[in-house]
Write a structure and sequence with these properties.
six-stranded antiparallel β-sheet, single chain, 1 helix, minor pseudopilin epsh fold
Length: about 200
């Protein structure tokens, strides 16, 4: 009499093959997700820099893209790759004119300054949280802030544009680069020139 079904050996071989396929596929899938997250962050940060530049020219006020210190995120922003000097991978665009008791052109959103949404719209004070953008699963490395003449320049990691569309130049006319790197070691760099070109 013939029995129908699978033997224990057939089931164990099938489980072993599935386990091997999963072991090979999961890291590849994670790498693909990390690549896409990195691409998304590059696109979002370039967009934020373009929006900041356009708003600076339209409003004739300084507009900054500043990294935001938020300890709830699992990724870190390290200045010059120094793990002891970490911020978290978020950024926001705001008009850095000192409105509401803040300090103009300090590269820090002081709470009263107007924030700008990822779509380029100026937000009301109660909507400021909508201006913060996250880099999922990525780490940003930014240059260490340069010594500031007369304390009249952004001191945190920030890139600020003037009404001419040019980048504010603390520390000289050299290009500023922001390298984004994810946990898989994949990296990409955004460069902002002295005249405000973003590439």
């Amino acid at each position: 009499m013939g029995e129908k079904g699978y033997s224990l050996i057939e089931i164990m071989v099938t489980i072993a093959i599935v386990a091997i396929l999963v072991t090979v596929a999961v890291p590849s899938f994670q790498n693909s997700i990390a690549k896409e997250n990195l691409k998304d962050c590059i696109v979002n940060l370039k967009g934020a820099l373009q929006i900041a530049r356009m708003n600076a020219m339209a409003t004739t006020m300084p507009v900054a893209v500043s990294l935001v210190n938020a300890t709830t995120m699992p990724v870190a922003v390290s200045l010059d790759n120094d793990p002891n000097n970490q911020l978290v991978g978020q950024f926001q665009v705001f008009i850095d004119n000192g409105t509401g008791g803040g300090t103009a052109r300090d590269g820090i959103w002081n709470g009263g300054e107007v924030t700008i949404s990822p779509q380029g719209r100026q937000l009301a004070a109660g909507e400021a949280a909508n201006a913060v953008q996250n880099c999922k699963g990525n780490t940003m490395f930014v240059p260490t802030p340069q010594p500031q003449p007369n304390n009249d320049a952004p001191t945190p990691p920030a890139i600020e544009f003037l009404s001419s569309g040019r980048r504010f130049l603390p520390g000289g006319p050299q290009d500023v680069s922001i390298t984004l790197q994810n946990g898989f070691g994949l990296a990409n760099t955004i460069t902002v020139s002295a005249i405000g070109d973003i590439r």
